[in-house]
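== Protein entry: sequence and backbone fold ==
=== Local backbone shapes as whole numbers ===
==== Amino acids and backbone structure tokens ====
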Amino acid sequence: MKQLIIIATLIFSVGNAHAQGLGGYMLDTVYMLPEARVTEKFKNDTDRYHYNQTKYYVTTILPYLDAATKLFREIDKKVNEPGISKRERKAYVNAREDEMRREFEDRVKQLNVTQGTLLVKLVTRQTELNIYKMLQEFKNPLTAVKWQAWARFNGLNLDKKYDPNEENMLELIMEDLGYPLPVGYRAAVYANGAR
């Protein structure tokens, strides 16, 4: 509430200064303030610890997230070029997969289960597609089924769409780190009144 009073006072003061400087005439002026998020404080130390731990995990996986998102965009652009054959498409996807494997496989294998789960959620968030559909599109349905079975065995679901309304803390962390919610999710979030 204190912040709203301060903002209102600032707007009123600036408006009065303009009006006085223009001979008492008020102009219709709109001041655009940056978007501000009002969040409740942590309920207890356990909540604070959970938030900080999740933020640490997210910052740990950001290089992999950025690389995966970039790779997805490049592959999507290439495979949707007109005139590309199925063989060229498959060779390109496999070459890029091998490149990513050489660069990141050893480090990704060192992630714990929570970090892996967060990585899957955030790749889904950033690309606006679920991992299962990506595997079906870029590899083949059998590969998608194989990885989905592995994920289900480990408590994940690669075929689940990311829902920002269910991931409030993760959304706060991502926005704090400079990763705003992708456009495709915004309409659904605002329609539900969650933000």
Notes: The chain is about 70% helix and 0% strand.
